[in-house]
Amino acid sequence: MPVEVRIPTMMRQDADGQATVTAQGSTIGEVLDDLVARYPRLGGKLRNDDGTLHKFVNVYVNDDDVRYLDKLDTKVAEADVVSILPAVAGG
Amino acid sequence: MLRLGETHYRQIVGHVYDGLPLEACGLLVGRADGPGRVKVEAFVPCRNAAASAKRYTIGPDGWAAADRETDAGRGEVLGVVHSHTHTDAYPSPTDVEEAANPLLAGWHFAIVSLKDGPPVLRSFLIEDGVVTEEPVVVERR
């Protein structure tokens, strides 16, 4: 199913300059796969070689960080908004 | 050097107090103002998505608010401010570790400490794990 994916400023150059794209998938992993299939340069910025989510980015479904849900297996529905964000955090 | 207006400074300090007892955080929007100098054009108060007294994370709502400022022509996101409620205004080991992110290259990391009562604002560049303090200039009108 199609979901809206928000791309952060510093990755838009790898997504034809778009701030928001529509991607297909029923899980975060599928949505990212679809996104990377169309914008291959995003791939190395989103995932590690073993396929896990890169620590430099956070991925949210609406207001929830997928690392605290089911990570890449987190389910998404058509009305959900997926946000890819640079990981800005500290202590 | 990080230059900001007195209004920005007051917004930052107010947001930090409003966030207590949690750590507070916000994004800095502005532009280069000469070699090694940036001028803040907007402070974007953000919710601490980590909802913690010991950690902070900027979530999608904070980034969306920053996008509204950059879309309005106030520059780029050039750094982040967060509070240390009980420690000095100096990057913690966690701060240094999290700053090692190529997506944040060249960012300014400002910290407000409330440890000793009156707020203390300092700012740092963190590259390859090396912390370098930079001057903070609050411009009063």
Topology, element by element:
The complex is a heterodimer of chains A (91) and B (141).
Chain A: E1 2-6, E2 20-24, H1 28-38, H2 43-46, E3 57-61, E4 64-65, E5 81-86, E6 89-90
Parallel strand pairs in A: 1-5
Antiparallel strand pairs in A: 1-2, 3-4, 3-5
Chain B: E1 2-5, H1 6-19, E2 25-32, E3 38-46, E4 56-57, H2 60-71, E5 76-84, H3 93-99, E6 108-113, E7 120-127, E8 130-134, E9 136-139
Description:
The complex is a heterodimer of chains A (91) and B (141). With 91 residues, chain A is an alpha+beta fold. Chain A contains two helices and six strands; from the N terminus they run E-E-H-H-E-E-E-E. In chain A, strands 2-1-5-3-4 form a five-stranded mixed β-sheet, with helices on one face. Chain A is globular and about 35 Å long. The radius of gyration of chain B is 14 Å and the shape is globular. An eight-stranded mixed β-sheet of chain B has the order 8-7-6-5-2-3-1-9. Chain B is of the alpha/beta class. The longest helix of chain B is centred in the first third of the chain and has 14 residues, at 6-19. The A-B interface holds A 6, 8-11, 19, 45, 55-58, 60, 62-63, 65, 81, 83, 85-91 and B 23, 25, 27, 49-50, 54-61, 63-64, 67, 70, 76-77, 80, 82, 91-95, 98-99, 101-104, 109. Strand 6 of chain A pairs antiparallel with strand 4 of chain B.
